[in-house]
Amino acid sequence: MGRLRAVLQLGPVSLILVGLALATTPASAAYPERPIRIILGFPAGSGADIMCRWFSQKLSEVSGATVVIENKPGAAGNIASEAIATAKPDGYSILFGGAAGLAASPAIYKNLRFDTLKDIEPVTAVAELVFALSVHPQLPVKSVADLTAYLRNKGPKATYGWAVTSAIASTVLYLKEANLDVTQVTYKATGQAISDVAAQQVDFAFGDVMYVLGQQHAGKVRILATTGTRRPSAAPDIPTMQESGYQSVVVAPWWAVFVPSGVPREINDQLAVWFDKITAMPETKDFLKSQGGDPLFGDREYVRKRLTSDMDYWRNITKLANLTPQ
User: Would you say the pTM of this structure is higher than 0.85?
Assistant: First the structure.
């Protein structure tokens, strides 16, 4: 009764101000209240996993939340993308996504159970890295020109492996410009393709530079070239494909953070603030450069526009490769 009397004693203006304060307090003010799940469409130990674990650890530090990575590899990232597209839009499920997979899937797969632009909402961009052309160390080639001559001489018995969309683009552009006809071997993950290069089961494969550099340091493969417009800081002695004479082979996969459509704007904004802060950290820049990558800054509109543009790029790639949507 005393509490009711106290409320009734408030004047009309006071009651209005109290009501406005309650109405404008966001429901997500306490976010995050429980662990945040980051979904990744690549297996543990992959280059993508190494990068994702860096960002997840930093996210835990800046947000104060427990962050858990859930690896969902397969189908060129579509398993992970579908998982985020159908997740509850509450900010506790995040996709650490390679934009190439999201952009390429509509051109490669016929029956996607999600719409990249409608069911998944961008948060912010985080990183860009290149791919690397790898061969077995004992293969008698020391340059891309050597590899091209070797493959042409080997003829139909020559083979290459690919697993992810950026590897597809890199290979298609190389084979097209070199005018080569080589037998394709498809893998579920980059690690499997590179392992078969190391085992001399296939002649070459493109893989993300983070992972392939580690394999080169272990003596399992040799990198002939990378797919950026400049040499990565982590591999200054390795030429680009353009420097090697293949001007069209420029593939620089980029990474961004996504959430399910419908996540409250204030939560999306908060995630963007956190990830932008992480990307701007000097130690993040050093980490990415040591792995062959670079920080990438871009808000949700930048991500959306670039993703839309990349979809057109991938429609052209599938035509060049004569890929039939599966």
Answer: no
